[in-house]
User: Which sequence fits this backbone?
């Protein structure tokens, strides 16, 4: 499997980005690239990193534009969109080799800094769950939304159905995108074999 890892950032925590890059390198993926968009280019010593400049002054928190630009620049069909606070745990790649590529949009287990589940397989208008609850059945892929902080998407899907660039971070841009994906009957799956983990002081889901 070939992957493009897309990391939108404002470049405020470069050491954290170095840690993310190294966690990807440790996966020993035969073919991959890392696209970092935003901040300054501190990554010239990393051959696998493609840096995209972004003028933050055009529109503040313009995360939708950054993600669409990542998709346009991606060389590979399997695109990982991860905000700049996730590291990839050991065997993340092997978990995807085991899980396979039969999906349009994919999720895997997300952990907070205490190793507790973060918002990954999340209810939206689910008849059996409250909004934002974690759905326990990982095969139940109806009535969910795709959390914007971390997801995988096929290049042709996000190019056909890009994020709405009229919206910025915090304006439910991920929920709006999910509704349009639903209208196109997308295949959303959860990979239970791969995990990512928060690198900043933020706790995840609590009942």
Assistant:
């Amino acid at each position: 499997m070939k992957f493009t890892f897309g990391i939108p950032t404002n470049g405020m925590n470069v050491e954290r980005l170095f840690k993310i890059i190294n966690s990807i390198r440790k996966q020993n993926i035969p073919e991959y690239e890392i696209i970092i968009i935003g901040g300054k280019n501190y990554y010239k010593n990393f051959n696998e990193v493609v840096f995209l400049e972004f003028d933050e002054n055009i529109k503040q928190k313009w995360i939708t534009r950054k993600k669409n630009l990542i998709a346009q620049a991606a060389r590979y069909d399997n695109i990982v969109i991860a905000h700049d606070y996730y590291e990839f745990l050991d065997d993340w790649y092997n978990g995807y080799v085991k899980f396979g590529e039969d999906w349009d949009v994919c999720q895997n287990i997300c952990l907070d800094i205490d190793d507790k589940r973060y918002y990954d397989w999340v209810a939206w208008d689910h008849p059996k769950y409250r909004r934002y609850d974690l759905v326990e059945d990982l095969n139940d892929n109806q009535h969910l939304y795709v959390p914007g902080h971390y997801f995988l998407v096929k290049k042709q899907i996000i190019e056909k159905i890009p994020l709405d660039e009229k919206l910025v971070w915090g304006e439910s841009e991920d929920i709006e995108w999910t509704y349009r994906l639903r209208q196109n009957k997308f295949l959303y799956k959860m990979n239970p074999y791969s995990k990512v983990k928060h690198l900043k002081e933020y706790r995840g889901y609590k009942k």
Notes: Helices lie at 14-25, 63-73, 92-99, 155-160, 173-183.
